[in-house]
Amino acid sequence: MNEDSGNYIIRKMRISFALLMTLLALADAGVRYQITTSWNGGLSGTFFVKPSQETNGWEFSVTFNKQVTMEIWDAVIKESATATTFNLKNQNYNPKLSPTAETGIGFVLRYTGDVVPTFTFNQGTFGGSSQATTVAPTTTRPATTAAATTTTKPASTTAAPTTTAKPATTTAATTASSSKAPGTCNTNSKYPYTEVIQKSILFYEAQRSGKLPASTKQRVPWRSDSALNDGKDKGIDLTGGWYDAGDYVKFNLPMAHSAVVLGWGILEFRDAYESCGLLSDALDEVRWATDYLLKCWRGNELYVQVGDGHIDHNYWGRPEEMTMSRPSFSVTPSKPGSDVAGDTSSALAIASILFKTKDPAYSATLLKAAEEVFRFGDQYRGKYSDSVPAAAEFYGSSKFVDELAQAAAFLNMATGDSTYLNKAKQLYTQGNLGSTPWAYSWDDKDAAVQVLLYKLTKEAGYKTAVESFMKAFMPGGSVSYTPKGLAYRDKWGALRYAANTALLGLIAAKDGVQQTSFVNWARSQIHYMLGDTGRSFVVGFGVNPPNAPHHASSSCPPCNWSQGSSCPVCGWQHLSAAGPNPSVLYGALVGGPDQSDNFVNNRDDYILNEVTTDYNAGFQSALAGLQYFIGKV
User: Facing residues of 106 across strands?
Assistant: First the structure.
């Protein structure tokens, strides 16, 4: 060990000791804080608040010894008295805090220089005042604190931002107000669904490819611009969209499917999103996908993949530092892809409904493309994975009639044109989609078509098909269960299948089909994922959450992109490195346990620890459904 190394270790020990003394000094205070990560010119952390009695609205203020810009989650910057003092109050969805547990409020500070500001609290609702000790800058993430909760919900073991809602930001010249929508957000549930939805949206932000907006770089500081040359091999712009999983291929079949499921959840449970202030961010995430899908439609050619799975899987590192070839693949009249065309059309059609009032011009563009892509997929029929061998090994398609039927149903909803409904019914019969499906997934849309056609027609035959599918997953059906109650369809993405089925059950329940039993069953499955077994399966949420997902980017040492400094090396050694991922992939639903409820944090185990955009889609929309049904069932 050289002298510099020894001094470095001593400095780190001093920093850790200072942080420990800060936390001990503030342990009994009404408001305290923890720094999660700091760098020259900024830091992220969490305020922990605890009232002496249950609140119905709360506020406190914090003063710094230097000018800062603050971004904060789960609180509103009521006003900024100066550039150094900020008055904070509750969001409309979290006025009630319990005296039995702490509540975490994530924040980011930006300031000039490398000296961390000191914090002084006027604790308002929480009583008294407290002076916090300065903690020196460090890029090493301190150990997480004891469990803290959001509102009166079960404890969360992570100290970090709990929302993707655009944080309130203010400087000396501006006063920010809440971006939350008006209305009452019902929080009377065992778990804080809104917090998990917020974190799920944050997961999708972490999966973004292309040129990232400043807001994403603020909320996910370990991500930056990447894959800016996508499509150049064909002379077009195919930047944007989401990376599929822990790697960096953009597979459009599961991506479009994820956009469909997210958009459908917003369409069905918009009230839940809007009343809890989640709608704007949810729509932004859908638009991130549909903006990319619009780029993929070239008139009589549809691009369906960017990147080669084999080349991509030989790289473990940051997407921002990729140098390998990223070829683009398309389907055409002579090499068809009706399945991916159907899902693309569905995603665009749903988004056209979602943005009809918010952005009429964009909505019209989406609908025009949705109809064109549907006609293309219907006229030139075939499976895309037969036309694009590079997709077959990773997301091979089993059929395409289900995707076309689903698209026709959503186009009927978007246009009111009965021709599309008749087409959906015709395809339903043609493809024998009334049989009980194996599951609802990126490859099998039969169950979704059943739910959609019952919604649109209220015909008994479709209702019977929906009930048959749901009963297969419920106790006594053909799907087996783990000892602790998870409907276990398959070892690959076990939680995904249960969450997708829960979503369809909630949509059917909203349409009056076995409302009580379907909602209760859906709740049992989602609660399994949130912690009913004694552990959470959502990264960055709840008790004993997964902390080593099979995800390359978050496994790398954090890189301070905003400072333009060189990044620590990241490579294959970080796949097998012991301990949690250095960056927390908030909101990601992992694959899940084995059939005996066993789960181990092991980044190398990509069956249990994999994360993908399609895993989260049904999960997030089911959470919105449960939020919608609070107080109803």
Answer: 46
